[in-house]
Amino acid sequence: GDAAKGANVAKSCGTCHSFEQGGAKKQGPNLFGITTRGPGKAEGFNYSPSYKAAAAKGFAWDAATLQDYITDPTAFLSNKTGDAAARDKMTFKLAKPDERADVIAYLATLK
User: Fold this and answer.
1) In this structure, are residues 48 and 89 in contact, taking their beta carbons and an 8 Å threshold?
2) pTM
3) 51 is an annotated ligand-binding site residue
4) 62 annotated to a ligand binding site
5) Domain 3-109 carries which CATH code?
6) PANTHER family given for it?
7) Count of CB atoms within 10 A of residue 75's CB?
8) How does 48-58 read in b/e, with b if 16+ C-beta sit within 10 Å?
9) 28: closest CA among 57, 51, 62?
10) Rg from Cα positions in the chain
11) 78 annotated as ligand-binding
12) Was 90 annotated as part of a binding site?
């Protein structure tokens, strides 16, 4: 993916997420450092019970995992938890594969 293009695509995510170090939590957690911290570790953010259950089972925010999550957060959590009723606060899906790859490349620069 192209991080510069991803930064542009990620602007649409800015309604719910901040991207700068120390940025405020919004409807969603701050995404700065997402690829270097564990899931559910954004300070001060109250994750959904399903997200917490998935995080407790263990996974890392690598490119493949981010790809699965931003494709369909609900399906991702259902698969991780084994609970078909699992739900997340994030309902937005990034439909275009090239945009997902670009956003993931951008997120990887936020360290």
Assistant:
1) yes
2) 0.94
3) no
4) no
5) 1.10.760.10
6) CYTOCHROME C
7) 15
8) bebbebbbeee
9) 51
10) 13
11) no
12) yes
